[in-house]
UniProtKB/TrEMBL annotation:
The gene is raiA. Pfam families: Ribosom_S30AE_C (PF16321), Ribosomal_S30AE (PF02482). Signal peptide: none annotated. GO terms for biological process: negative regulation of translational elongation. It comes from Ferruginivarius sediminum. This is Ribosome hibernation promoting factor. InterPro entries: HPF/YfiA_ribosome-assoc, HPF_long/plastid, RHF-like, RHF/RaiA, Ribosom_S30AE_C, Ribosom_S30AE_C_sf. HAMAP family: HPF.
Length: 196
């Protein structure tokens, strides 16, 4: 596993770096096998320490966890516990996905992703000349073809608020999102069940 440990307003020494590497190797070895790469960012926010772990565990599968605590070791260990719980919850699906991704290539669809200016502040500031919201950034994005269960797993692992995917059961575009009550919402536009 390729590991990168970064510190923002904090010095990450060799002992702490070794603790992080040993913990992540134990977790990935126990639940998944071997992650491709992981980035750990430790930062200080006032009196608290913030640990952010971003791991690439397979093709198209990102795992993001974070934790805050009053000590750096406690902050990282809390994030490592969350990582372990998520991997344990999705262990079977990840192993099945890993076998499937080695046997066949996963279908994806190219799309464009845009970041629009928020509507807060001056109206002229966040609008283009024609009154539409200003485009701040434009990026390419891939929309994977997944089952609903695989999409929910990826949403949970990456701690995303929402995710668009092509439903592999019928080929239509679907959306899942995290609701305010903590449950997952699923949007399957009418007519997609007969599409193909």
């Amino acid at each position: 596993m390729q590991l990168s440990v970064n510190g923002r307003q904090i010095d990450v020494g060799d002992a702490f770096r070794g603790h992080i590497e040993e913990s992540l190797n134990d977790i990935f070895g126990k639940y998944f096998g071997d992650a491709i790469e992981a980035t750990v960012t430790m930062s200080r926010e006032g009196p608290m320490y913030h640990a952010l772990v971003n791991a690439h565990v397979g093709r198209g599968i990102q795992l993001v966890v974070e934790n805050r605590a009053d000590k750096p070791y406690t902050a990282f260990d809390g994030a490592a516990d969350r990582l372990s719980k998520r991997l344990r919850r999705h262990k079977r699906r990840l192993r099945d996905h890993h076998r499937e991704s080695n046997a066949e290539t996963i279908q994806t669809m190219a799309a464009r992703q845009y970041v629009l200016a928020s509507e807060s502040g001056e109206a002229e500031e966040g609008e283009s000349a024609d009154g539409q919201p200003a485009v701040i950034a434009e990026m390419s994005h891939e929309i994977p073809s997944l089952t609903v269960g695989e999409a929910v797993m990826r949403l949970d692992l990456a701690d995303l608020p929402a995710m668009m995917f092509r439903n592999s059961a019928h080929g239509g575009m679907n959306m899942i999102y995290r609701r305010g009550d903590g449950n997952i919402g699923w949007i399957d536009p009418q007519g997609n069940s007969s599409a193909k």
